[in-house]
Amino acid sequence: MKKITGLIIAVLMTASFAHAKWWIFGKTKDEVSVKYMTINSISADESAKTLKFFADNLGGSVVVKGKASAGKGAVVGSVRYSIDGKNTWQDAKFTESGNFEFSFRPETGKKYKMYIEITNTAGKTNNLEETAKEIEISNENATSKIKETLDSMFDAYSNENSAKFMSYVSDDFAGDKDFLALAINKDFLALNDIKMRYTINNIASGPNGIYVSINYNRSMLGAKSGQISSDNGITEMVFKFNGEKPMLYSMKKPLLFGLSDADNVATGQTAGQSEGIVIDNGEVGGAVETVSISCSGSNPYLHPLYYFSTEETGCHPQNDMIEKSAIGEFIVYGSPVQAELQHNGQVKEFNKPISSLTEAEVKNLSGYTQPVTFSINTTSSYGIYIYGKFYAVQFVTIPAASGQQNTAFKVRKF
Known about the structure:
By secondary structure, this protein is mainly β.
């Protein structure tokens, strides 16, 4: 692994950390509040009141980002902050949608009492005490030990060494250590040629452990499909010290380890990130169903159909389309090779195989179109949105211009 110096933050939190997400302050839609906030990319729970920054890896600045709620029927008028206990105030950068950001350069040995004030266009403000944070600068350093553990875990996972990997997992692992061990072994059955890289984004330590935010990129070969899946993003983990050795305590989605049982292994999801690559029933990227349809005859207007709403398949002549289209269908034509999506269905093309698609990609409606017909090929995959449900399709074979019409395609349902 490429050695880098991570930006270090320490956040002292309550015992509820394993379920900590973004700061949630607003109680109703009518209240002016801070909906969520991050400090140097680390999400903080509302119960965390004291923050300790490590000066040697601070990078010079503390960066605060978040989103403000203006309350029902109003917009954010201003966002300002104080780092000296409300004695002086400074304006934060913000947008009308409520996003705000500010930064300051702390000094070693000095404590800062931070507050954030949101004012809407009606003059109403938030509860300042709910945003109070005390920030302290320390000369301590935990980076090297955390990085040694991360390097060893990544090496063990990439080399499919489950015993070595589990030797870095705490006995009280929040996602259940036995579930993680089983999931790791299932991962190794489903994967080949695992390649993973990471860089430390931030480290935050507190009474429950060391909170680590990392940037990652990875690729892996599905043992069944033979196809490569890859992704990149940010994820968060927590480590506890056992003597001098950091031990993995919890992980958030997107998971880097234990993908085969994500729901039982993960303790939440990293804010702003998708679920990432998953393994479902031994398939990388989720369970894939293969549908094969053969329509004999010489009529070039015979169409293989796939009914997403009823999961039936069949072949029907063109003059039968009016009756059959009442339930909504996905129609594959012979010449030219194209598909027709009925009943306001939407489609988006992806230039990669179906196994590499993430749920977040398919469910992001940006880029979807609503064509009656669209061209298809066997190298792309297609996101389908119809009747409020999402599917991914990749064609294995496509029909000929006339005569025997054979179609096979892979389908994932979300």
